Amino acid sequence: MATAHNIKAARRAKRVRFKLKQTATTSLRLSVHRSNNNIYAQIIDDSASKTLVAASSLEKGFDRAGKTGLTVDIARKVGVVLAEKAKKAALGKVYFDRGQYIYHGRIKALAEGAREGGLEF
Fold first, then answer.
1. Which of 111, 55, 51 has the alpha carbon at shortest distance from 84?
2. pLDDT tens, position by position, 64-85
3. What is the DSSP letter of 92?
4. How many Cβ atoms are within 10 Å of 85's Cβ, its own excluded?
5. Average pLDDT in the chain
6. CA atoms in the 13 A half-sphere facing the CB of 20
7. Which of these, 47, 46, 69, lies nearest to 57 by C-alpha position?
8. Residue 39 forms beta bridges with which residues?
């Protein structure tokens, strides 16, 4: 059964995605999902409905060293890794879909890391 929180979150995500699609000049979308313990990012080609590259904090190389939650530093590293994978796949310009999350903290760190790695949005 859907809770009121889930319904509101889905509405926020839909509203953000709709506004972005109106102004987007490319069909490549950098989508972000955040949980309490991990963060996931992927570049999706909306015209073909395919995920082109993805990165998450679950990959090797993201040493938690006893930390229970995800830190802003790890989120930034995920953004850099995603940008490196995008460069290898010859992807340059995307639009940033933050979904239901506000542009703050880990979401902002991931976006800044992706910009540092060379992605444009």
1. 55
2. 665 655 689 999 999 999 999 9
3. -
4. 18
5. 89
6. 21
7. 69
8. 34
Q: Report pLDDT for 67.
A: 62
Tell me how far apart the terminal alpha carbons of the chain are, to the nearest angstrom: 36
pTM: 0.85
Tell me the two tokens of residue 55.
Answer: 């990165």
Look up the CATH number of domain 4-117: 3.30.420.100
Return left, alpha or beta for 65; rule: phi > 0 is left, psi -120 to 50 is alpha, else beta: left
Task: Tell me, letter by letter, the H, E, C secondary structure of 25-72.
Answer: CCCEEEEEEECCCCEEEEEEECCCCEEEEEEECCCCCCCCCCCCCCCH
Q: Are 73 and 113 in contact (CB under 8 A)?
A: no
Closest CA to 28 of 13, 48, 10: 48
Q: How many Å is the maximal CA-CA distance in the chain? A: 43
